[in-house]
Each structure stands twice: as C-alpha cells, then as structure tokens.
Amino acid sequence: MYFGLSEDQIMLQDSVGRYLEGASELEAVRKFTEGDTTLADTLHSGMEELGVPFVLLPEALNGQILGGLGMGVLEAALIQEALGRHIAPSSFATAYGMAVVGLREAGDEDWLSQIAMGSARMAVGMTEAIGVREDAGLSLSGDTVSGRASFVMGADGATHFLLTTGDQLIVVERGAKGVSETALTTIDKTRNVVTLDLDKASAALIAGNNHAVALRKMIDAGRVLLAADTLGAAAMMLEKAVAYSKERDQFNRPIGSFQAVKHMCAEMAARLEPCRALVWYAAYAQDHVPEEAALMACLAKSHVSDVSKFVARTATEVHGGMGFTDLLGLHYWFKRIGANRQLLGGPEKLRAEAAELQGWG
Length: 361
Known about the structure:
Elements: H1 7-23, H2 26-33, H3 38-50, E1 60-61, E2 64-65, H4 73-85, H5 92-106, H6 109-117, E3 122-125, E4 137-141, E5 144-153, E6 160-164, E7 169-173, E8 179-184, E9 193-202, E10 204-205, H7 211-247, E11 249-250, E12 253-254, H8 259-288, H9 290-318, H10 330-342, H11 347-357
Parallel strand pairs: 3-6
Antiparallel strand pairs: 1-2, 4-5, 5-9, 6-7, 7-10, 8-9, 11-12
C-alpha cells in the first residue's frame, strides 16, 4: 500500500504554490496589512481561475448540478498549506472550507448553489460552539437573531455570515438591518476578524435537521485547515532560516557552518517533518475515517501548534537581530502561527477534548 499524495494532489498543491509565489509577495502582503485590500481581491480572482473555490463543492447534489470538483478535506488542506507558506490574506479556509463542509453535510442545496455561482461568500462564526465569553452568544426568535458573535473569521469579501446559535446554524446577510460589525485588532494582520452585534436581525435557518453533525464537521475541518496553514507557515520559516544561515557570514565563514546553528536547523526539521503526515491523515479522516475525524483534528492542530511555535521562535533566533526587523518580514509568519494556535481552540483545550473523545475525561 502506498501512503502519500497522488500525482493529482501534488499537481494541485504545486499549481497553487506557483501562483502564490508570484501573487502573494512579501511587499504585497505588507501593503495589505497597512490597509490596501488589493491583494485579497487579486488572490480571490486568481484562485477562482485555478478552480480553488470549487474544490469541496460537490459536482451535483440531489440531482442539481453545482459544478464543483467534489474533492475532499485533504485537497483543501494542501491548498491551505500553500496559503500559509505565502501568508496569503485569503478566506479560503472559512468561505470555501468550513462553510461548504457544513452546508454539504446539512444538504442545503440553495446556499451551496449560491456559493458555486459566486453570489454568496460566507464568513464563519463558530467560536461560541467552542467556548462562550460572558457577553457573547446568539439567541434565535422566529426568523430573527439577537446577541453577539465574537471572532467571526473570513470577513474579507464576505456577503453573508454563517453562525451558530448553539444548536442551530443560521445565515445572516452582511449589512442587513440590525447587524453591527466591529473589526478586531489581532496579532495577525494578514486576515480580518470581526465581532458581530445582532439586534433582531433577519436570519435564515439552513436546511436539514442534522445541524449538530454539520457544526461538528465544520469545526473539525476548520481545525485541520488551520493546522495545515500553520504547517505551511512554519515550513517557510524553516526554509528562510536555513537559507539565511548559508548567506550570513561571521568570523569569515557562514553561520550555518557552526555546530550550534546546524543543531537548531536540524531540530526544527526533525520536529516539523512528522507533522506533515499527521495533518494529511487528519484531513483524510474527515472524509474517509469519520470515527476518527474529530480526534485527529484535535491532535493535529494541538501538536502542529506546539511544534510550529518552537520553529517560529528558533527560526527567528537563527536570524539574530535581523529576525526582528520588518525588512525580512519574519513576524508575519510568526504572528500567523500564533493566531492559528488559538483560533477554534488552543492546544490545551484540544488535548482535553481529545481525552474526552477517547473516554479519558
């Protein structure tokens, strides 16, 4: 049996990576973090040409042709890893990852069709399903919803918000009456996160009765995609550290020739490489090993978060003082890793959840 990516999967990731290498350059990312949204719009258009938004959309649903590629979370994770490598300001993980997984599980043809046609693009707010702050949470009354949804992800270019009231999934139109939006300042400026305050805003209940299952699958898929994003960002930091160690001279020799620096780079590589198989299997399990899907999502995100935290710190140390400058821009990858670590649950919470799933809680 062959354990690895297929040729098609390798080609998919390579094509996305090659596009991002030219489109999501550091200077363009820097401009985005300063308020210029041109890059996000450019990336969305470019990714559409590559067919990326259609990866998880089914080819057909209940007899209706959607025109999707019908691929799985593994293919989506490979795309997200490339996005993380290039710190791309893209809402793929939420708009075309979590949202599509949830709607697909529920069997909501209408919203999936709108996504396929490009008339709907959803930001996702699932924080309250993981841990509710004292002043947060939504309550549904008839066809209106009130309350606060915190840390809504994927606001870039979103037309709708896919939210949870605890036991039901709803869609709220962006800019509708009763919807107040506040941009949050986070350490990761390559993505926009908002808080929504809703006051009797019109809400559309998504189709189907298996909302609890759809919510669970959305969260699991989101955790896997964040783990893949973190893996890509950490891999790039490692590569930059190795390249810098070969170029930077000290005492008339490259610092990479010093044993201490060699050990730092080798330890980063040794810790990071096994994470790749872990993320691949966690992504594969979402579609093919459902009994392990939730557990593997927790384990993958928690472990990759810890390993990548070490890689981010060590790679910065290899660069010395230059690692802290905006000139090299390492902090964009560093902060992306840090933000991913906490989104949809930090390592400690995920390990506790994994223990409960195995009956150890």
